[in-house]
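Regression report. Comparing outputs from two consecutive submissions.

Submission 1:
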Amino acid sequence: MSERVVIVGGTSGIGLATAELLRDRGNRVVVAGRSADRLEAALKVLGDGVEGRTLDASDEGQLAEFFAEVGPFDHLVVTVSPRGGITPLLELTAAELRRHSEGKLIPQLLTVKAALETLRADGSVTLLGAASSQMSAPGLTVLGSSNAALETAARILAVELAPRRVNALSPGVIDTPWWDWLPEENRGAVVNGACTNTPLGRPGRPEEVAHAIAFLVENAYTTGIVLPVDGGGRLAS
């Protein structure tokens, strides 16, 4: 029997790859994203069997309307994340701190809260953190703190929302549009250079992260974990 999966942030990058994989595995998929243009492009890729809606996940009113329209479903995946954010402390501003909180932590947690009315009582929630939560490289204060907070929240919610399962993904350097904040002529060198000292020595692909998300969605005895998908980046010296 197919299950219904809602992917908020499912119109590009990791979210879109996850939508494609879960669709191919026979699930009924609903994707949502803030950009109408990206939603339209994503639905062309995903085909007629996938539903889509525009949604600003930081807006509680829109979230309530969205989940009321979607109705009952089995699994929630939230991949909402702002781009950029590698900022040295001396260049850090309150606006940058707010941008990351309002772009990731706040919308992901508000999405989970709004979903509870219609999410299956023993369904699952998968959040998207990042490997910066475990790193101490200069410039990662904002990214690392934001992702660490989200990954900690996932563990807490696994207890608070049980028997619903709650997990988080912690991807490393993945070649997605997240890196589009870089100048195009430097993007490839920076992305590949960030993986030089990792065991696998290359950036990950969105579909590789999607496979890990699918595991967390499908495995009914896994909850409260933060699953790293970083090519061994956490092992690099």
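Submission 2:
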Amino acid sequence: MTITAPAAPAPASLQRIVALALPALVVLAAEPVYVLVDMAVVGHLGRVQLAALALGGSVMGLAAWLGNVLAMGTTGRAARRFGAAERLPAVIEGVQASWLALAAGFALVVGVEAVAGPLTRSLAGSGPDGALIAAGAEQWLRIAALGMPGILLTFAGNGWMRGVQDTRRPLYYVIGANVLSAILCPLLVYPAGLGLTGSAIANVAAQTIGGLLFLLALARERAPLAPRADMLRGQLSLNGALLVRGAAFQACFLSAAAVAARFGAAAIGAHQIALQLWMFCAFALDSIAIAAQSLVGAELGAGLGDQARRTADRIGRIGGLLGLGLAVVIGVGAVALPALFTTDSAVRAQALIVWPWFVAMLPMAGVVFALDGVMVGAGDARYLRNLTLVAALCGFLPAIWAAYAFDLGLGGIWFGLTMFIVIRLIALLLRMRNGAWAVTGATR
């Protein structure tokens, strides 16, 4: 019997987009909120312990970065299968992503355990407390690293569940694991008297339980759990392109911090304040991108190319409006927001230099983040990789190093970040217009 494709309905409604975006936003925000709680608990032990946690946490961020790449790629591939009425193959994409997560997680554990000592000593430097900070960071990291497989399994699980448009279970799993950690951390640090070690144990417990919950969800789907070479190759190809793209982001932000530091303590302080607020805004904008990955991937998988284009257009507009709303909030808080982080008048004066660039970027960034999600859902990762490299090499990096060479200060650095957004915005709008991304079918 021949099954005809259904007529294309209207593009995804605002209600459906919000229903996917809001749980994604909570999941995205859960980890940074826990980090703040962890820092508040450990911070009362002393500045050396807080510095050790900061160094160890920066290394653990590598697992979160890799996990985010894995989640994006898995969402797009699973969504296509789901849209083609192939739920079981969509879940099997999650199985393959979980195998990759386990392999990468255990490799990271071995690597971190091998270099934890030299790495933390290098990061701590030779200052007056350098040796104490390095020792604390190494102690914390050697334990916390055991949670890396759980971190990656959690991201893989989020990826396939978003692909099949199941947003509730990831929300419960992630919040549950983080609440557990938030309860365990102060108990182990203080009443149990374990100090930094207690913080690390709480991290491992929460991350491992989170990963196990997502593995249990796979088992309940009754999907075959064996590795599939064809699917693994497809995921590795897609994730490789996204990994290069992510590395370009890291290079840009590290370079920006390095240049800001050369303008003095006030400049790097103001840059860090603005950057943290920028990252907060990015979480909100990323939630729209996640909805785009799921919806567009499913529509292309169902063969509904025209509908996918209409949905992409709507999501781009929603992203722009969200960015505009954030710009208004950030703009109104130009004086008050930096004051929440510092009483230093020099730092606040430097922040005022950054603020016009920050505000101007947000509406454009809203569109860029949304369309990034569209392209990930469409499996157009190579285009995103190439575009990010071009924007970094031809926009961001030349601008910020010119800022250093000509002593342009923070204004020059944030002009570079703005150029990074502008180049990507123009290229993504052109890509949207020519429609080359909208390839239909269960796989690309």
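Expected: both submissions complete independently.
Actual: both completed, but the second showed a warning that disappeared on reload.
Relevant detail on submission 2: The CA atoms of residues 22 and 287 lie 7 Å apart.
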